[in-house]
Write a structure and sequence with these properties.
23 helices; 8 strands; alpha/beta
Length: 496
């Protein structure tokens, strides 16, 4: 009996060993067949949005264009997010002209943008006619790849933009807003990615806006989505928690095709992992990017000099921010909460507000904390603490969220809180944008003579308060540039 048991154990041991060796051989064979991992450089969009409050001027981008164009990046993220608003609001620049200038400079490299689905680049949903026209103009002015996401992962809010992106012949990258909750499981994300494939996605991006994606989760999530969809996978993360570089490596091991990085002077902290570090770290592995570090040196030197001119705008983060790991709050949201509390002379309430955020998020159905849901949840959490009574003061955006105007919450909302917020008013049915009337006709009337290009009407619809000041100033500059009136008209605004 003992001899028989020993023989069986030995046989089992040999079988396990053989199976293990075969699995390793198969894994190595698959790795050797892997194509090189691509790098999307974010310095012209998300990096400076994250590190220096979106203040990088076009004039500081253009001198680096020629050398960046020679690097061999998968793509350059140059537009979208908060850059559109900030260009007009803080830099007195036309975001459309920035895109055209960059397109003329980058002759070899694909240009990419971030689009918030039905939110476009603003903080509310826009009517379908605006979404369609915006996509047309974005692609027409030079965008090759559009990364499209919805804050609630409600695919209904991506339908119009996705359909138009495909019509325009651009690369449609549909995006998962990554977060952690009992309802955001690996299986749920895999099913979401499969549904995105059905919408015509050319690739899938895992957007980890808070830096919460762990290395183990990165591996399993990329592997699962890759097997489920067969589509190229791109991973986007932030270094705020210190996990991103490790998570990128595990994502590459699992089959990720592209990762987002930022050139070193504007990397890490609340930005992305450093481009040079990722290129060096993957060199000599099956995931080698094929990029030459020597070509990255002059790019880094340029932005190192540029950074010195923006010292007052730089967000300094030493090490990692443990609050983000504790409360799952993105770096930008954390900074906004600090700013709001400072204005109210209530910075001593910060810890209480941070603890309130997860509770409010749970009651609101666990929305991922990304624009605009991060602002909605953060504002309500701050009010709950500052007022001293939870859900006593409720902003209109919070009520609209509960009524379904931002989309379908990922999980059921707290029913008692919903009744307190909306009373007997029921949530809307169907796709939220179906409840919005066309907006472009009104913009045509409002902007009138101040429009120098069709894109100006879109600028007005997205940010009317900002455009009312910016468009007349631009009109004056462009109209009187050749006759020397620009200096005399500086500071003049003509109300629309």
């Amino acid at each position: 009996m003992a001899d028989s048991k020993k023989r069986n154990n030995d046989k089992l041991s040999r079988t396990v060993q053989a199976t293990s060796e075969k699995a390793c051989d198969d894994h190595e064979a698959v790795e050797e067949k892997r194509v090189r991992v691509g790098i999307t450089e974010t310095v012209l969009r998300d990096a400076h949005q994250s590190i220096m409050a979106t203040r990088l001027k076009t004039a500081d981008m253009l001198p680096a264009a020629e050398m960046m164009d020679e690097v061999g990046y998968h793509s350059l993220e140059v537009w979208g997010g908060a850059t559109f608003d900030a260009a007009m609001r803080f830099l007195d620049e036309d975001p459309w002209e920035r895109l055209r200038l960059l397109r003329r400079c980058f002759k070899k490299t694909r240009l990419q943008m971030l689009l918030r689905g039905q939110n476009l680049l603003g903080y509310r949903h826009y009517a379908d006619d605006v979404v369609v026209e915006f996509v047309k103009r974005a692609v027409g002015n030079g965008i090759d790849i559009i990364r499209c996401f919805d804050a609630l992962n409600d695919l209904r809010n991506l339908e119009t933009a996705a359909e138009q992106i495909k019509k325009e012949g651009a690369h449609l990258q549909l995006c998962i807003s990554y977060t952690i909750s009992p309802f955001h499981t690996a299986k749920a994300f895999e099913e979401l990615a499969f549904a995105m494939k059905g919408m015509g996605a050319d690739s899938i991006c895992i957007k980890d806006m808070a830096g919460l994606l762990s290395p183990a989760e990165a591996y399993s999530l990329v592997k699962g989505i890759k097997e489920r969809t067969g589509l190229p996978i791109q991973v986007h993360s932030h270094y705020t928690t210190g996990l991103a570089a490790m998570s990128y490596f595990e994502a590459c091991r699992a089959g990720a095709d592209v990762v987002d990085c930022a050139i070193s002077p504007l990397s890490m902290g609340t930005s992305q992992p450093a481009t040079e570090a990722i290129v060096a770290g993957l060199a000599g592995t099956p995931y080698d990017t094929g990029l030459d570090l020597e070509r990255l040196v002059p790019v880094a030197e340029h932005f190192r000099r540029v950074r010195e001119n923006y010292s007052k705008d730089i967000v300094s983060l030493q090490g990692i921010d443990i609050n983000i790991l504790r409360y799952q709050i993105p770096g930008g949201m954390y900074s906004n909460l600090v700013s709001q509390l400072k204005e109210q002379d209530a910075l001593d309430k910060l810890d209480a507000v941070l603890k309130e955020v997860p509770q409010v998020r749970k009651e609101m159905g666990y929305p991922p904390l990304v624009t605009p849901s991060s602002q909605i949840v953060g504002t309500q959490a701050a009010l709950n603490v500052l007022v001293g009574e939870r859900w006593k003061v409720i902003p209109k955006e919070v009520k609209r969220y509960f009524l379904g105007y931002y989309g379908r919450p990922p999980a059921p909302v707290d029913e008692q809180i919903r009744k307190k917020v909306t009373g007997d008013e029921g949530a809307i049915s169907g796709r939220p944008a179906e409840h919005l009337a066309a907006e472009l006709p009104g913009a045509l009337k409002a902007v009138g003579v101040w429009a120098l290009q069709p894109e100006d009407y879109l600028s007005y619809v997205l940010f009317p308060a900002v455009a009312k000041d910016f468009l007349p100033r631009k009109f004056a500059r462009e109209t009187y540039r050749d006759v020397g009136f620009e200096e005399a008209l500086d500071g003049v605004a003509y109300p629309l």
